[in-house]
Amino acid sequence: MTRSWPSRLWIIRHGESAGNVARAAAYAGGAERIELTLRDMDVPLSANGRDQAAALGRQFAGRPAGERPEVLFTSPYLRALDTARLFREAGGFDPDEAICIDERLREKEFGTLDGLTTVGIARHEPQQAELRRSLGKFYHRPPGGESWCDVILRLRSFMDTVGLHHAGRPVMIFAHQVVVLCLRYILEGMDEEAILAIDRAGNIGNCAITEYRFDPAGGPDGRMALTCFNVIPALAGEEGLPTAEPRRRLPPA
If you write DSSP's letter for every residue of 76-128 in order, what string do you get? Predict the structure, then answer.
């Protein structure tokens, strides 16, 4: 069966969230739990995250028509959905076009480990800490949660939907760190060792861009070729500030 691809694909991690801020504080203080009272799916953007999303929208608004997305997908989680909405409001996407919410783009589910730091997992869930060490983070599935393989399975289905309905069009996705990495795993045919090496190199920046372009010469069905990874575009004069230094990687040879 011939596989269909979008002409371009941008994968964006959501802007800085209240959860990102709380998580950083918890790890800096050696706490066992991340101080949040909301469900993970209801965690909002921080003020800085809202600025980041709007700044990214203004950056894309200044691009020629062919350099902007025609289709916008987002995780249903509030931090990703609001990043997409603010991006559209700032001119990065046609205001008359709907944002497509797809639950397959949601954050990895952590189950019983949700809200715990590494210190907290070791104290309150020592059996799971040992299982994670023995199985590795790629295959470990906490009770009530998902492994990376589970996330990859739903994302394969999502990419089939994109190819079926949006082949040849520029598509943008707003999602989460693990989703960004798992989409790289799928699109580039990686194995466990390769994707975990990228994960160990550092975090995905908030509102950082990972971009692919369709390469018709990449095999019988073509392929999506990586053009940039984890890049926060220059936002000179913008108020949206990166929350971590992004990595800049050349596409694989």
Answer: SSHHHHHHHHHHHHTTSS-TTSPPEE-GGGSPPPBGGGTTB-HHHHHHH-HHH
